[in-house]
Amino acid sequence: MTDNVSLQFISGQRCVGSSDEELTIVDPSTGHTLATGRSASRADVEAAVTSARTAFPGWSRTTPAQRAELLLRWADGVRARSDEFVALESRNGGKAIKLAQGFDIPGVIDNISFFGSITRNLEGKASGEYSGDHTSSIRREPIGVVGSIAPWNYPLQMAAWKILPAIAAGNTIVLKPSELTPLTTLLFAETAVAAGIPPGVINVVTGRGDPVGQALVEHSDVAMVSFTGSTRVGRQVAAAAAGGVKRVHLELGGKAPFVVFDDADIEAAARGAMAGALINGGQDCTAATRAYVQRPRYDEFVSRVTELMRGVRVGPTDDPATDMGSLISLAQRDNVAAMVERARASGAKVLCGGVVPEHAPEGSAYYDPTLIVDATQDSEIVQNEIFGPVLVCLPFDADDDGLALANDTPYGLAASAWTTNVFRAQRATRELAAGCVWVNDHIPIISEMPHGGYKASGFGKDMSTYSFDEYTNIKHVMSDITGAAHKQWHDLIFTT
Ligand code: NAD
Q: I want to staple 168 with a disulfide (CB 3.0 to 4.6 A). Which of 57, 119, 189, 366 is the partner?
């Protein structure tokens, strides 16, 4: 156990927050304290923003080649310490170690390498004489200080998705991780400076949303706010940023549908639903939460998922054989359990799970993988984000009905369609209203492709070259090439 750690990273150094509030960072799979430390205060937010503002002129004028070299060196630095990152991410997140080892940390390293490579390759419209009398060209310029706020579900990946495109584009950043899971983000910032990224380019302030996140969003020197978290808080952040007319990027909640047509490979779909629903204990914004299965194959699907779910090994996070760890906190476990109980009370059936595992240590936040049937489309468990290891299965008849039910929630982050018919697959990719649609799979992500939502899941894209659209201002430069004092268009205004 570590104690009394410095939970802030400002101007290239770990430092102690100046608030009176002490934060306790817990391993939710044991309930044990991993670290304690002082929260940031408004003064710390001020210092972090000043640090980022001071670093901006220098960093924004580094060449793409210089930024690329530093990012690629950073990727090597994280790779060299990946065991440390894996252990810390697994313990602080209550994650099975095999997930941290095979997904979280390699994903982050790949992201750094990706942004290190593409920072030298920003694209834009061709310069040209579009008016005939001027050369028009496009400049893509960094915006300034970015204030970012991250959630707890994939602490390091979410921090990386915010930090990397921002700094690759020449911005500087102040990031607030979740107060529950700051440890790997702080180590990440340290490794950036060790790789040569100048102090002040990346700053981390740790504390609660109110007041620390709020102070960051409202700060007049923060030019852009990029937020990943719940739709509820996203709305507050957007409203607070509106006062300063700041650019806002929102990656919000999800409620991904998983549509299984009657020609699907049911074994593949059942396995896909398990992996898609249980990844990270279901605390994944793109997790499969609602499986709509065409009626002729519904029973077969439900029975295979039940069988597979009963075999999931829920256990200690450091055991390589563990499939699923705990949820992030007792509060989150209680939210999930309460939603399942309300579903039960309103007539849904729990076929599997729906309980805290018998062997769960005192103070831990475990919850068993849970399968629910007989819920109605308008019920809370079908409409609202659960963010736990819970899959609801519902039957449908015509293809149109399945697709309409899939789109019938406020969210639109991700969806999948399962079919062996190419025409059905193509139609589903058009009809499903989500930022990502998988065909015969659910969950995989890659650095080269964008991640972001439709509808109440937010707007803006993480990862990929699309993220540069978020983190750069586009400037049109229009230069006269005639040298004429009298330009023809002046005649529209005056003729002397
Ligand atoms: P949350 O919205 O409760 O908190 C997210 C962050 O916002 C935290 O750092 C929190 O401290 C901060 N915050 C809270 N109130 C604030 C305020 N008033 N001003 C500024 N900051 C504030 O979300 P969470 O519980 O940490 O994470 C789970 C949520 O994140 C889920 O809804 C999930 O779907 C979503 N999520 C979305 C994506 C995506 O890419 N769309 C990815 C991961 C998680």
A: 119
Residue 207 and residue 35: Cα distance in Å, rounded? 14
Q: Kindly give the distance from the C-alpha atom of residue 250 to the centroid of ligand 1, in angstroms, as a whole number.
A: 10
Residues 374 and 353 in one domain: yes
Angle (nearest 5°) at CA 338 between 288 and 28: 75
Instruction: State the CATH number of the domain containing residue 288.
Output: 3.40.309.10
Q: What percent of the chain has pLDDT over 90?
A: 98
Q: Is residue 494 part of a domain?
A: no
Whole-number Å distance between alpha carbons of 474 and 222: 18
- Is the pTM here over 0.85, yes or no? yes
| Residue with CA at minimum distance from ligand 1 atom 16 | 209
CA separation for the pair 400, 396 (Å, rounded): 9
Please give the number of the atom of ligand 1 that sits closest to the Cα of 152: 26
The per-residue pLDDT for range 30-51, each reduced to its tens digit, is 999 999 999 999 999 999 999 9
Give tens-digit pLDDT for 340-355. 999 999 999 999 999 9
- Exposed e or buried b per residue across 140-162, where buried means at least 16 C-beta atoms within 10 angstroms of its C-beta: bebbbbbbbbbbbbbbbbbbbbb
Q: Are residues 176 and 303 in the same domain?
A: no
Residue list, ligand 1 pocket, CB within 6 Å: 149-153, 158, 176, 178-179, 208-210, 213-214, 217, 228-230, 233, 236-237, 251-254, 285, 385, 387, 413, 451, 453, 457-458
> Distance, CA 390 to ligand 1 centroid (Å)?
20
pLDDT surpasses 80 at 1: no
* 278 shares a domain with 362: yes
- Does residue 52 carry a pLDDT above 60? yes
